[in-house]
Specification:
About 75% of the residues lie in helices and about 0% in strands. With about 200 residues, the protein is mainly alpha-helical. It has one domain: LemA-like domain (de novo design (two linked rop proteins), Up-down Bundle). α1 packs antiparallel against α2, α1 packs antiparallel against α5 and α2 runs antiparallel to α3. It starts with a helix and ends in a 26-residue tail after the last helix.
């Protein structure tokens, strides 16, 4: 074998090795990113289900003629705000996820306020449609929690893949960035203030 062929063979093997590494990195990152997109789709589906149920709940509650309009308006406005935010899971930023979380938390708060207010309306509390919707909402909240947890579970292996060295070098070249995780809603770490007013 001629001596000048040895360096060419070594260079060829190195180039092929780097090529295989880059292809393997890219294909794995794309696959993990697709898992995140699927998990995000499930999050959106769960929130959409809640939004649809809230629409039906509001219509049922509106049937109670003397029900407080301000409470209903708060829920309707919070629902509109929550459904107005769209996020591309392939380009999600921590700020976008925080904003999404904030408006969904606002809707959760308005909904809790509505359900507490309903306690003062015995006819509404006994309404079968309302009770069914209330049960479905409770089930949907569990689905939302599960979907958010699975989103975080899908995000972790992707983040590990693109952040570890030497993959982080290729991640920069191919434009893969780490993804944010769902965090607890703001104020969730504070102890709830429970105040029973038995005079009313």
């Amino acid at each position: 074998m001629k001596k000048w062929l040895v360096p060419l063979i070594v260079i060829g093997v190195l180039v092929f090795g780097i090529y295989r590494w880059a292809v393997g990195f890219n294909n794995t990152a794309v696959s993990l990113n697709e898992n995140i997109s699927e998990a995000w789709g499930n999050v959106e589906t769960a929130y959409q289900r809640r939004s649809d149920l809230i629409g039906n709940l509001v219509k049922t509650v509106q049937g109670a003629a003397d029900f407080e309009k301000s409470t209903l308006t708060e829920v309707i406005n919070a629902r509109a705000k929550a459904t107005s935010i769209n996020i591309d899971p392939t380009k999600v930023t921590p700020e976008q996820l925080a904003e999404f979380n904030k408006v969904q938390g606002g809707l959760s708060g308005a909904l809790k306020s509505l359900l507490v207010t309903v306690e003062r309306y015995p006819d509404l509390k006994a309404n079968q449609n309302f009770l069914k919707l209330q049960d479905e909402l409770a089930s949907t909240e569990n689905q939302i929690l599960t979907a958010r947890t699975r989103f975080n579970e899908a995000t972790k292996p992707y983040n590990k893949h693109v952040k570890v060295f030497p993959n982080s070098i290729l991640a920069g070249w191919f434009g893969f960035e780490g993804k944010p995780y769902f965090q607890a809603e703001e104020g969730a770490d504070k102890k709830p203030d429970v105040n029973f007013d038995f005079k009313n």
